[in-house]
Amino acid sequence: MSIGSCPHDAGVPAGLLLGWCGDDFTGSAAVMEVLGFSGLPARLFLRMPTPGDLAAAPHLRAFGVATTARTYAPWQMQAEFPALFHAFRDIGAPLFHYKVCSTLDSSERTGSIGCAADIGLEVFPASWAPVLVAAPPMGRYQAFGTLFAEAFGSIHRLDRHPVMRRHPVTPMDEADVACHLARQTAHAVACLDLAGFADAADRLARLRQGGARLITLDAIDQDTLAVCGELLWTHRRDAPFVIGSQGVEYALIAYWIRQGWLPPAQPVPSAGRAEAMVVVSGSVSPVTQRQIDWAQAHGFEGIPLDPVALMDPASSQLAERHAVSAALEALGRGLDPLIHTARGPDDPRVQRFQGWIGRAGTPIADANVRIGSALGRVLDRILEDTGVRRAVISGGDTSGHAVRELDILALEPLAPTIPGASVCTVIANNHLDGLQLALKGGQMGSEDYFGWVREGGGAR
Fold first, then answer.
1. All domains of the chain, ordered by start, with CATH?
2. Cβ of 134: how many Cβ atoms within 10 Å?
3. Per residue in 32-87, pLDDT tens?
């Protein structure tokens, strides 16, 4: 079945195939790992790379830039994204991917995917943009326009998802992807649903003739992913701007493998057990709660950090020093420190923090910046003082701010764990060069995730 507009493609061309910009750090790293572990060298930068940065890495087939746009108001996107998107366009890769979360975290006021889409459609020579949020390999499915996601071993419609419906910043009350995006953009949004894959070219043409500029794509398995990948790749000239999760890369790779242009990926081995490891967590997810409980029963020392204390510079400095001291003491006793600002949504610290937010009138996005930055400073101090070479940052909304405190240049994939949270190698011009770092979204990971990273990851 062919649904493309470029039937004479002979294979995957040489050079850069893809550029991507992520709306948070964990998701940006997830794109890198999908590509890297499939045999396509990829690197995630913390800022737009210079020509010298790219010239120093001629082996790259793709590169990305991580942002914290999931916490942005629309005016922040409008101030930052045009220049960033123009820079990607000028690089000249066939596709540019604006990476969003596979659980569609966003609203009209915070992390607006629609706002980013508006900017991308203006910057790139795109008559329309595919939207592929589903990522079946990690338990995210779209069927007839509706998004479903796995949690605790079961599949839930997004608006009934036990984690996402309780998200502290963007609680999800709409599972229809087109309806959710239509709240955020004036462009017409439509769905190329599963029923349309048998005559996808005709249905796609009708949707575009009807005025749709954002077209969401269903995907539930490898077969539908490959169909999506064919659509993305063969329409790269009229639709070079793509929106979606790492499902975009899963789809492209599924199509390239099916065409025989890319060999099937081989299992990636473990990086080996770490002598010591440090974890910092700003997540309030019940998934992370289970992971913390498991870790504390298996050689990790839980170290509570009060998020309210991090809201004031003076009290934050004291709280950070105490956390560092407790971590150093734990390491001295042969335990791996796990510093957390909450053990789950019902932690009393969460209620106290929400009360403080209400009284102070501080926007939650600003408060998350303070929490993430404090966790980053704590982690950096511990790593510099001890020379520990493996760490985890847990929490999608706060990890980006934590990573920025580390002053690193880029990441490259090292060893897999669960999809979207691999162990990476840090590239930096300071003491952190060569650090093995994993970034994990709050709702992601197996119960023993922290232990898995301590063992070095690797295919199970």
1. 18-259 (3.40.50.10840), 278-454 (3.40.980.20)
2. 31
3. 999 999 999 999 999 999 989 999 999 999 999 999 899 899 999 999 999 999 99
